[in-house]
Design brief:
Strand 5 and strand 6 form a beta hairpin. The protein has 345 residues and is of the alpha+beta class. It contains 11 helices and 9 strands.
Amino acid sequence: MDFQLDDDQRALRDGMRDLLERRFPRTRLRTVVDGHESAPPLDRALWRELGTAGFFALRLPEAAGGVGLGLPEAVLAMEEAGRTLLPGPLVATQLAAGLGAGNAVEDSAEVAAANAVEGAAEGAAVVTALDLGPGADRLVEHLASADAVLVLSGEDAEVLPAAALADPARPIRSVDPATPLHRVHPAFEAVAGTGAVGTAARLRREAALLTAAQQLGSASRTVRMAVDHATARTQFGRPIGAFQAVQHLCARMLVRAESARSVVYAAAVTEEARDIAAAKLLADEAAVHNARDCLQVHGGMGFTWEADVHLHLKRAWVRAGQWQTAAAAEEELAAGLLLTGETGL
């Protein structure tokens, strides 16, 4: 099976990278991070521009106003978003864009939720997510900026207006200054909104894979940051990249990123639960450990607020706890190995 990108996929990746570099450069990231206490981190104008570019409608059929592409292309777009540390519930909004079409609702709250779902594809609405499944941490990102919440409960998915979580959700301190978090009270149960029956398992798998793609983008970016610093920084009259210890750090970072890339891309093609679990596991490891090694390459300056390295580490920590943790992914893979062993007897 050939996992090489074709010309259209490379054009999509390059176009998304150009858009994000132009609309969300480092200066914008620093504005979000440095002003997180007073300024909302979600840029609605950029959100709408992403919608116009087809970011949220990549997997919608053309007949429904979408781009008509598949999960591999969505992974490429999310990878570029992860590379720039673009804030916002990107995964939830893209998933919600495919829900709610054609639903007839009359209740005012349901109408608001349905409108938000329909606006998700165009970037006119921001949709975050809440997982009420067993073992889920009930954390919601960017709730204050969201119009609606994609709720996964049991086997079903539904979309509620964000106001429905005003009482049961409380803000908590987030390690990532660009990812505000709320925790929903354990007693909260979803009420009828608009959505789809029996889709929760699929949405969880897709969310895990798209989050892994963001982790992959971050892991690749920190490789470049480490190499650039090792080339420019000098000690004893030589670039620090000439020292073997630094070379080994950078080499390990590259191996992690490329190993994760091959598994993430493969999982986007197969869409198998075990492949997605492996992708999330390796991508989380690559993002977290690459950020740590990048800090090591930068030395003391890497720990300063002005450096961007710590932002990649903090975002990687947050994403590692979203949708599928390392423990859950390991359980999924272990169950698959046991099943394979039983089949072979």
